[in-house]
Amino acid sequence: MFLGLFGPLLGASVGAPAFGGQSTLQWFLPGVVVMIALFGTSMTGSNLQYELMTGSYERILATPLSRSSLMIGRALKEWAPLVLQGLLIALVCIPFGFVFHPLHVLLGLVILGIFGIGLGALSYSLALVSQNKEWIFWGVQQTLLFPLMILSGIMLPIEAGPAWMKTASLFNPLTYLVNAERELFAGTIGGHTLWGLVAAAVTAAVGLAVGIRTISRDIR
Amino acid sequence: MIHTEKLTKTFQVKKETVEAVKGVDIDVAPGELVAFLGPNGAGKSTTLRMLTTLLRPTSGSATVAGVDVAADPAGVRARIGYIGQGNGGGHSFRVIDELVMQGRFYGMNTSDATARAQELLHSLDLADLAKRTVIKLSGGQRRRMDVALGLMHSPRLLFLDEPSTGMDPQNRANLWDHIMRLRQEHGTTIVLTTHYMDEADSMSERVIVIDHGRIIADDTAARLKANLAGDLLAVEVAAESAPGVRGLLGRAAAGGEVQENRLDGVVTFRLRLPEGARIAPSLLKDMNDAGAPAQSIELKPPTLDDVFLELTGRNLREGANQ
Ligand SMILES: Nc1ncnc2c1ncn2[C@@H]1O[C@H](COP(=O)(O)OP(=O)(O)O)[C@@H](O)[C@H]1O
Ligand SMILES: [Mg+2]
């Protein structure tokens, strides 16, 4: 579905002037892949809400499965199909002038996955905390996700924005992630990649720590 | 197998404190089959959740399968099986996949888990539904699937929270067959909760009656009934004999209440009679000797409902929170 909406726009953007020396596509695509992965992983908790009500969550909690693998598994489960979709988009874009660097993209996906684990675990905690109050989950998820995305330069380059936005973007782990993905999708590996990896690892560590704390609180 | 000391759980709901479990001491030996009986809200599920490490006790201690629930919850989880009060199957998954996944959670390999799943599906009458998604199952089918999930890893100690709720009588009987077989063949220790008194009565050897978060009785069903509630005796006599009978029955009831109903020249007396079946014959003879013979009698053995009524002054069915 995403592809269907995306396709017509592609044709139009091919001839457009390039950002920062790269082709529009080469610049834009990594952002799209990050964005759909974000949407997916940030919704990890929404499925959980249902399972909290039926009892399947309780059943899994009663097994010896470790809490962190439970969360990692769930985050990656939401992440994987969306990343596949992103890759599909990338492949479709090849005829339009997108240059595909498989190894770099693979590394990019690994970093994205690590980030996704963190975000998924946070979403998971959010669902646990907002148990029986679904609107809280969606409210918080939406109010956090959009500013974070805009402040990361996913859609438009942040360099064009006012100074405060640039400063704010420095504190946004997504910024580093998006920059890393752009660097990798362009077929290069450098400082951005490293920073992206650090941001992803920190997000994962924080997410899992928060998640494990939340998960071991009382459940009904 | 289970040992608890003053196990307590309080919940904080808004500003209010709910004392769900108020210091229970439980001892269960290996191989026992124990039923927690109590009305809705009595604290049965909360107790089970503490024993299965899903809830952290507010105070007190519990050792389950030789492991302390607070010190090593993962160790407890590896040694027990738990069938919760809700439905365990994830709605969008196929029945067989959930079962195999459950086995994997307990460290079984895929082929063992698949074989075990097939075996359970077969014996729980779910074989035709293996490839169906959980959401398409009926309530009773889901409950049987829950049982299959709990049995995947053949635990030595099994907890079941209201296992038969939502099942029709035939499936209930089936479930009980299964539980009994499990005990016979593997010596599994079984702790279950129920608010069906007939179930606790006929199936388990030992009944722990819970009310308002406290254990108010703990014994075999037979002894609970014999000690706490007598048989219910109803005697019909001709109206003119009633005055003589009244005194006789009053003495037999030993202080208990004797109800009296008059209809068309016949008076019906109703009373509780400890060991009624043994006393009734001589009582009838006394009535005969007094020239006030019974026209008909009815003697009903007590139920656990009567025991609960005796213990709490409330009926098990209506006696929820108050
Ligand atoms: N997570 C919870 N938060 C607040 N109150 C709870 C929670 N779980 C149970 N309770 C309350 O504790 C009491 C006992 O509940 P429960 O153990 O589910 O009873 P039962 O299983 O015997 O029906 C009830 O008053 C219930 O409302
Ligand atoms: Mg309950």
UniProtKB/TrEMBL annotation, chain A:
Residues annotated as transmembrane: 25-43, 79-100, 106-128, 135-158, 194-215
Membrane topology annotation: Multi-pass membrane protein
Biological process annotations from GO: response to antibiotic
Keyword Nucleus: no
Any one annotated GO CC term: ATP-binding cassette (ABC) transporter complex
Top-level taxon in the UniProt lineage: Bacteria
InterPro entries: ABC2_TM, ABC_2_transport, Nod_factor_ABC_transporter
Record's keyword annotation contains Glycoprotein: no
Compartments reported by the entry: Membrane
GO molecular function, one term: ABC-type transporter activity
Domain ABC-2 type transporter transmembrane positions: 11-183
Keywords from the named record: Antibiotic resistance, Membrane, Transmembrane, Transmembrane helix
Name of the molecule in the record: Permease protein of ABC-type transport system
Organism per entry: Arthrobacter nitrophenolicus
TrEMBL record, chain B:
Domain named ABC transporter: residues: 2-237
GO molecular function: ATP binding; ATP hydrolysis activity
Highest taxon in the source lineage: Bacteria
Gene3D superfamilies membership: P-loop containing nucleotide triphosphate hydrolases
Keywords, alphabetical: Antibiotic resistance, ATP-binding, Nucleotide-binding, Transport
A cellular component term, taken from the record's GO annotations: plasma membrane
InterPro entries, alphabetized: AAA+_ATPase, ABC_transporter-like_ATP-bd, ABC_transporter-like_CS, ABC_transporter_ATP-binding, P-loop_NTPase
Cellular location(s): Cell membrane
Pfam families per UniProt: ABC_tran (PF00005)
Topological relation to the membrane, as annotated: Peripheral membrane protein
Gene Ontology terms describing biological process: response to antibiotic
Protein name per UniProt: ATPase component of putative ABC-type transport system
Organism: Arthrobacter nitrophenolicus
Species classification: Bacteria, Bacillati, Actinomycetota, Actinomycetes, Micrococcales
